């Protein structure tokens, strides 16, 4: 038996390959450091959903199709208003809203996937605006997927540099083997359930701090440290208390997560020379954390994971921490969707076994309720 299914291969996929020993991530044939900083979100979406990069006319038609699905039903906005009134956390609110994308669906997995990919930024941005006491900003079909998301959050048309940084981020996190949320999505559709159900379940799995919920706490740690000379003492204190350092360690990678490098470079480009201090502090925190983790866990090979630089990049883009995990979802929904399509095409019911460790030989007659 393998607790937590560590090392168990459960499905075959053409979508991504994670080599934890070499520190490599391949996305449908392309190295993450080649694809993520160069391709548009729409190109990566096409690649994952259709197995190859689009020809120029296909790219245009695909981008138009995706853009045409951004509007969300009024009833979904109504639910977001209700959720905001009782301060439901963003990730829970978007999970509730995502489940409602079944309204008017056409029972077609690719249609469901396209609608969910396109609508999720609208849901996140609308909820953010409503929570801030502002009205949602109307969608702009003339903007790219990423530019529209940034515009819907702030009402300001983003610069090409900001769009590129966000696009690099979303492409970097779009898929990553059989991570917990993708596994959840595949398990759900493996019963021949539907893509919207799978995405709803995947959002639930992503929420936890051991998966998509780490970047907020990772940034909190950098802020708490505040200045480079405090890094050593504060990180030591955390480890002494038995705490885990968020943004470090990974189930698969035994070397540095290659996505951390892609995002570190994107973050460095984003942080200008004036406000570089946070970037430099984060670098110092990273170096110190790695040294102390090696000292404490010499056998474990704990290294920086994607969440550490996610936090820095999204903060640099002006995102509040509560949008970190929802924005991760806006990228990872590509992988969830593509895995669902692959599972529906080629997969088998996913149904592992459990090892029973409870008692045996008990008799109902002896139960306390039966004794008079
Ligand atoms: N800080 C301190 N110690 C750690 C860390 C960490 N970040 N990660 C693992 N360890 C220690 C554990 O305490 C454990 O020690 P022990 O054997 O003395 O009990 C040992 O390393 C092994 O830990 P496991 O939980 O078995 O390792 P696993 O491979 O299952 O965990 C995980 C991977 C959950 C990501 C873990 O490294 C962690 O909790 N990291 C912090 C949270 C984080 O950054 N999550 C984001 C991951 S990336 C993503 O999901 C997109």
Question: What does this 3D model show about the protein?
Answer:
- The protein is mostly helical and 372 residues long.
- The chain has two domains: 222 residues, Orthogonal Bundle (Citrate Synthase, domain 1), CATH 1.10.580.10; 102 residues, Cytochrome p450-Terp, domain 2, CATH 1.10.230.
- It contains 16 helices and three strands.
- Strands 1-2-3 form a three-stranded antiparallel beta sheet.
- Strand 1 and strand 2 form a beta hairpin.
- The two termini are 42 Å apart.
- The structure holds acetyl coenzyme *A.
List keywords for this structure.
Citrate Synthase, domain 1; Cytochrome p450-Terp, domain 2; three-stranded antiparallel β-sheet; 2 domains; about 55% helix; globular; about 375 residues; mainly alpha; about 5% strand; binds acetyl coenzyme *A; 16 helices
List the helices and strands and how they pair.
Layout lengths: L15 E4 L4 E4 L2 E2 H4 L5 H10 L5 H12 L6 H12 L4 H10 L9 H23 L13 H10 L5 H13 L7 H11 L4 H12 L8 H11 L5 H10 L17 H13 L6 H20 L9 H11 L7 H23 L26
Antiparallel strand pairs: 1-2, 2-3
Bound molecules: acetyl coenzyme *A.
Low-confidence stretches: none
Q: Which percent range describes the beta-strand content? A: under 5%
What is the CATH domain class of the largest domain?
Mainly Alpha
- Shape type: globular
Q: Work out the helix count.
A: 16
CATH topology of the largest domain: Citrate Synthase, domain 1
CATH architecture identity of the largest domain: Orthogonal Bundle
Biggest sheet: strands, sense, closure? 3 strands, antiparallel
**Percent helix range:** 55-70%
For the secondary structure, the number of strands is 3
């Amino acid at each position: 038996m393998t607790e937590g299914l560590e090392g168990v291969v459960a499905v075959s996929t053409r979508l991504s390959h994670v080599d934890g020993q070499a520190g490599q991530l391949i996305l449908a044939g392309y190295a993450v450091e080649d694809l993520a900083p160069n391709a548009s979100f729409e190109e990566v979406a096409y690649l994952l959903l259709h197995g190859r990069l689009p020809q120029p006319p296909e790219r245009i038609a695909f981008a138009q199709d995706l853009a045409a699905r951004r509007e969300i039903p009024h009833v979904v906005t109504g639910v977001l208003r209700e959720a905001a009134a009782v301060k439901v956390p963003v990730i829970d609110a978007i999970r509730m809203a995502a489940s409602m994308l079944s309204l008017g669906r056409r029972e077609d997995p690719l249609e469901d996937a396209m609608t969910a990919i396109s609508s999720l930024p609208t849901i996140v941005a609308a909820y953010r605006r409503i929570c801030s006491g502002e009205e949602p900003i109307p969608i702009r079909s003339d903007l790219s997927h990423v530019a529209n998301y940034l515009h819907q959050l702030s009402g300001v048309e983003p610069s090409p540099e900001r769009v590129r940084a966000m696009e690099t981020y979303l492409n970097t996190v779009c898929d990553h083997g059989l991570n917990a949320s993708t596994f959840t999505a595949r398990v759900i559709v493996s019963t021949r359930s539907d893509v919207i159900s799978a995405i709803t379940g995947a959002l639930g799995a992503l929420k936890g701090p051991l998966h998509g919920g780490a970047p907020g706490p990772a940034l909190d740690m950098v802020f708490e440290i505040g200045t480079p000379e405090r890094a050593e003492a504060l990180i030591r204190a955390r480890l002494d208390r038995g705490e885990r350092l968020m943004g470090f360690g990974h189930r698969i990678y035994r070397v540095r997560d290659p996505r951390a490098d892609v995002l570190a470079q994107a973050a460095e480009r984003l942080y200008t020379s004036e406000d570089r201090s946070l970037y430099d502090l984060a670098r110092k925190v990273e170096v110190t954390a790695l040294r102390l983790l090696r000292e404490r866990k010499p056998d474990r090979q704990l290294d920086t994971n994607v969440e550490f630089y996610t936090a820095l990049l999204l903060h640099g883009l002006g995102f509040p921490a509560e949008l970190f995990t929802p924005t991760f979802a806006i990228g990872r929904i590509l992988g969830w969707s593509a895995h669902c399509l692959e599972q529906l095409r080629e997969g088998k019911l996913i149904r592992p076994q459990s090892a029973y460790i409870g008692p045996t030989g008990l008799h109902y007659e002896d139960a306390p309720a039966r004794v008079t």
